[in-house]
Specification:
- This protein has about 160 residues and is mainly α.
- It is built from seven helices and four strands.
- It has helices at about 5-15, 20-40, 45-60, 80-85, 90-105, 125-130, 130-150, and strands at about 105-110, 115, 120, 125.
Amino acid sequence: MKARKPRSETVGERFVEKFPEVQYQFVQFFSDHLIDCCRTFGGDMQEVVVLAVLGQHHLQNTHRIYPTANARTSEASIAASRIADVLGMSRETVRRKLKLLAARGWVRQTETGAWELVGEVGDEAARNDLEGLSMRNMERLARLYVGLEKLVGAPRSN
């Protein structure tokens, strides 16, 4: 009996077959999102990516995005040096961006020197202040999903 390919492999093959259409859908989504972020953050895309790395780390550790993550907020903090390493940015640039985010009331430095989002899990200040951006992104993501679904077919049910 022949083993079934993973869905991601099948979808990837369809993406290659339909490359121009897939590329159009993706670039439309991505550029619209980047433009929206650029406008929301006054053109400071480095601030955007610093917050994105910190936010992803926070989500992984507080919302159990991955089964091995645990929901202790103390583990949701991350060192500025780690963010710099992930982004390939200088540590000083990351520290400056974190200070700007702190001035917005979105992040704070812990006693250990690491950085974390401000607010309770699910009610973070950045999440609340960026709700408009998040909702516009959900709309863009839905359009991307529908556009790609037309190209590769609806997901199989298990």
